Structures are given as C-alpha cells and as structure tokens.
Amino acid sequence: MTISAQIPPRTEFTRRRLGDEAFITLLVVLAAVALFLTASLLVPNFFQLQNMINLVTNNWAVISLGVGVTFLLVSGNFDLSVGGVVALSGVLSVWFAQSAGGANALSTGLGMPYFLAIACALLGAMAIGGLNALFVVRFGVPSIIVTLGTMMVARGIAQVITHGSQRNTNLPEEFGVLGNLYMFGTSVKLPVVLMILLILIAVFIEKKTVFGRKTYWIGANAVAATLSGIDRAKHITYLYLFSSAIAGVVGILLASEFKSGFSNRGMLMEFDALVIALLGGVAIAGGFGSVVGMFFGAIILAVVTSAATGLVLSPDWQFTLKAIAVFLAIVVQTWALARRNR
Amino acid sequence: MSQPTAISQGPTDRNGRIARFLRDYYIYFVFVAVIAVLSVANLDQFTLFERGNFLNKYNIINILRVSAPLITLAGAFTLLMVSGYIDLSVGSAMSLSAVVYALLAINGVPFLPAFVATVAVGVVLGTINGFLVVRLKITPVIATLITLSLYKGIALLLVQDGVSAIKSGGGLKMPAWFNDYGREGVLLSLPMAFWVAILVTLVLIIVQKRTLIGKYAAATGGNPTAAKLSGIKTGKIVWVLYGIVGVTAALAGIARSSFMSLGDPLSGDGMELTVILVVLLGGTAFSGGEGRVSKSFVAALIIMSLTVGMLTLVPAYYQTLVIGSALLLAAASNHIVSKKGKSS
C-alpha cells in the first residue's frame, strides 16, 4: 500500500470546507482592521503604536483562556469554568506559598517552596478540568451545565480559602516575580510573551497535527468520528485538561502580578473568552473555527471597548456594546456563509 | 428456563417500580430531609437567627417572602426547558425590570400603572429572545447570552453615573407604598409578591396539565421534528414560552425591587444559574421533553431554605461552593436517572 493511497485526495469538498474557514477568518481580520481605522478617525490619539500594543497586552489573560475555549468549542463543547479556575489557581498558589506561621487565619498558609506551590496550584486547576471531563464524558451531562457548575465550585473553593476576600500577606519574596517580569528590556511582560507562544503552538496543533484535525472531526460529526476509531472520550478529556491548565497558569500569573490571591479575580472572564471566540467566527455547534480568528475576535472586542472609553462613554456601556458586537458578528457570519455557499 | 425468568423478573420489576417511585417523588423526600436537618441543627449559638429554631413562624415567613422571585421564575423556566430551550437572560431581565419599576415609582407613577408597564417591558424582553431564537435561528444559549449582556447593559445605563442603584436621594423620594408589594403581609402575613408567585405557579401547572401549550411544549422538547411534522407550530410555542418567561422575570424583578426598596441593576445577577439549578433539581431534563412545574416549585423552596438556612450553619462564603456542587449533582443525577445522557 502506498502512502498516497492512505491520504484522501483533495476533493472539491475538502477544499471548499477549509476555504469557508479561511474566508471567515479573513472577514474577522478585515472587520478588526476596519474597526481600528474607524476608531482612529473618531478617537484622538488612538492611531499609535503603543495603543496597538496595548490592545493585545491588556488582554493577554482573556486571549490565553480563549485558546482552550476555542479548542473545546471546535470539538462541540463549552468551557465556562475558566474564570473560576483562574480564581482558584491564583488563590491556591498564594495559600500554598504563604509561610506557615501567620498572625491570623488569612495570613497563614502551608509554607511550601514557591515552585512546589505553583505546581500544586496547577494540579488543583487541572482537577477542575478533570471534573469537567468526568461529568461531560462519563456521565453525559451537557457541557454548559457542567462547566457552569464547576465554575461555581472552583470559585467557591477560592472563596472558602480566602474567607470571601483575599490573601496577600506573608508571601515569599519571589512570589511577585513571574507576573511582573519585563522581557528583553521592553515594557512587555512575561505573561504576554507566554500568550504569544501559546497562540503559535495552538495554531501549529490546530493546523498541522492529527490531534488538531481530530478535534474538528469530533465537533463536525461526533458519531462519525467515533465510528472511524477516534477515542472521543479521551480526546475531550485532554481538551478539558488543556483548557484548565491554561486557566491555571493565567491564574498563577495574575496572582503573582498583583501579589495577592483574590477570590473574585477572573469574574466574567469565561464569558469574555466565549465572546471573543464567537466574534472570531468559531461555530457554537462545533467543527468550525480557528485560534487566529479568536485572536482577532479579541482585537475587535478590545478596539470596541477601548474606543468607547476614549469617546468618554460611561463604562456602563461595555455590556451593551458587547451584546451588539456579538449579535452583529453572528448575523454577518451566518449571512456571509449562506451567501457564499448558495 | 421460564421459572428462573419469573423469579428474576420479580425483583427487577420491583426495582423498576422503586426506581420509578424514587424518580417521581424524590424531590419531596429531599424537601423533608432538608427541612428536618435545618430544624434539628442547633442555631441558638449563632447571632444571625436570634429567634430560635428554623421552623418558627418568622423564619418561615421570611423564607417564603424572599423566595417570591425564584418561585415566580421557576415555573415558566420549567416549561421553556421542557420544550428544549433555555433563557440565560432571566437574571438580567429581572434586573432591568427592577430598575424600570423603581424608576417609574420614584418619578411619581402610581403602583398599578408602574406594575403593568413593567410587566409589558417583560413581555418585550421575552419577545426579543423569541425573535433571536425563532426568527433569526441563533442558538438559544448564544442568543440569550447576548441579551443577558444587553439587558444588563441597559439596566446599568438607566441608573445614572456615580449611583449604584435607583433609590431615594437627589430630590427624588421613593413613595411610601413601594415596599408594600414585597414586604407587607396581606394574607397569613405573607406579602402580595408571594401570592402572585403562587398564582403564577398554579396557572402554569394548569397550563402544563390541561392546555395544548403544555402538551405542545413537551412534544417540541421530546422530538422537535416529529412535533413539527404533526402540525405543531413549534416556533410559535417557543416564542410564547419566551414571552411567559419574560413576564415572570418582570414580576420577579418587581418583587425583588420592592423587597429591597431600590432598583438595583445587579439585583438579578446569577439568578439564571439559581433557576437552572432549581429546574434541574426538580427533575427537568436539560435536553427537553420532561419536567413538572410543581416539582420545580418544591425545588425552589428547597434551594431557598438551604440558602437562608445555611447562613445559620456556615459562613456566607461557603454559598457559591454549595450551590455549585448542588448544580453538578442535580445535573448528573438527572441524566443518570433518565438515562438520556448525550454529550455536548
């Protein structure tokens, strides 16, 4: 058997399907650029290099979370637990690292060495991912309910550990280093560099590996994927662990940046991660979407919200703007695809 | 072979009957168990409930009073979920209604016009959801996530900058009657809001058991294609159900706003999760097709007893964890019992 026999020929069908995805991603990129240019015309001092950099660097946390959420959405599953996991892992890392003898309950931790502390916090975060996978894959509960539940469980544990507020005393010196490390003498911090690395790796996995393509097949047709020998349960378990690990790292970095474990950190981040994925053209039904699209979806949201702030709208506008942006994105994408495939 | 079969059939049949009995009535046992535990637990050493035990008159009245919004919402939400749809915007719709109601009241509109206008707003909010889901065919989760953000945004915009909620101050004063609807006892020392909640629940029980809307909702959720093929206008049914949920969200908002005597644009935050928890706890299948308004009513009482009762046993910061765990357990046990488990 020759190798060429195993690889399906590039038929009209496969070329068209991939084409649709590239088409939507291009649409998202164009929308982001057009919005940026419009905002530059309307808002003074908007068209500046530093502002462009800020649009990305201010949103490193949500974009990083968006990577895991995008993969899960592509496989046809929600992950709304990431915001809770951000709070949990941050609080855990602080609690583990605080020295054992403190003045009161909130300043007494477990006194672990820092790197052991963050490793354990990461494990705690991934336990939530494991819980997601257990309920979704083994018990067959709809993922939106499961991950809403685990979001509350994760945040609930964080609230119990911090007694509903925060822990920020009695921390070792090295705790605040990771989140505030400036890279290569620029104003760019380590978390941003990690986010860019994560996106590069994610794009590679998505486009060039079997794992990435399997994700699409599961999302496009779960039954067909199972029948063609893909271990769906294992795959989705990996995706949930992957997503919660990212959220765990984000939580640890945020805790380090602010030198505190705050039980309300990451509030609503799960919705923002979902929103940028949707703005970026990821289909809620699964099987369609890309990490690059998600990234530019985040840019769209960032441009819209920061332009609104620049136009001196009240910050209360952000919810309304988000709603309108997502609504337009979904309607336009559906319309564009329907028109193209007519 | 026939004899062993007959013998083995006995227990299986009995097991089946027990399982069915448990599935049909477990919610009432849970209710009794929760009440029993909360009544037995010693509350005297805590300062929060100086009046003594859980089952005393004042505590029961208090719990039923604060339950009014949740009870109002639970029934309509059950019907919507039975038809296989979901509304994540109920919390925001409730906040927006609370703000609108408080705004009208503080600007001198009498009770009845303000009440009717707010309910009309609720109809509009529900209809918008219905429009997005039925006409534009946006997935219910996403459509109502959009309106969650939208309604909350509008509620925040209606409250002027620098103020957290609509309340007395700045030359405007809340009218004296504002509190009455949610607090003042009219019958059995329970306020109007509670009796409206009971009325809504009774009407919806009748709607579910005796009218075509109830049957069609179950048919739509059980098998949408079959329902459509047998001539049911599923789109219309879903639209009506979203409208009903909008009305109950408005009623819940009025009750909450009147109880707290302010129009707080965040007062409904997280309500959608509590309602989903209640409805799932009541045995409604997330994928649609089965569920009872009456069971959701009992589940709402359980959750409110738990949230209020828990304050006397553990510090308030345990609440998120307990509710999250309850949500997971309710969802999992539902799907294991009904064996309708499907991923995603």
From TrEMBL, chain A:
Keywords: Cell membrane, Membrane, Transmembrane, Transmembrane helix. The keyword Transmembrane applies. It is a multi-pass membrane protein. The chain crosses the membrane at residues 21-43, 55-74, 81-100, 112-137, 144-161, 181-205, 238-256, 268-288, 295-313, 319-338. InterPro entries: ABC_transp_permease. It is found in: Cell membrane. This is ABC transporter permease. The lineage of its organism: Bacteria, Pseudomonadati, Pseudomonadota, Alphaproteobacteria, Hyphomicrobiales.
Automatic annotation (TrEMBL), chain B:
Its main location: membrane. It comes from the Bacteria. The chain crosses the membrane at residues 25-43, 63-81, 88-106, 112-134, 141-166, 186-207, 237-259, 271-289, 296-314. The keyword Cell inner membrane applies. It is found in: Cell membrane. The keyword Cytoplasm does not apply. Keywords: Cell inner membrane, Cell membrane, Membrane, Transmembrane, Transmembrane helix, Transport. It holds the Pfam family BPD_transp_2. It is a multi-pass membrane protein. InterPro entries: ABC_transp_permease (IPR001851). This is ABC transporter permease. It comes from Hoeflea poritis.
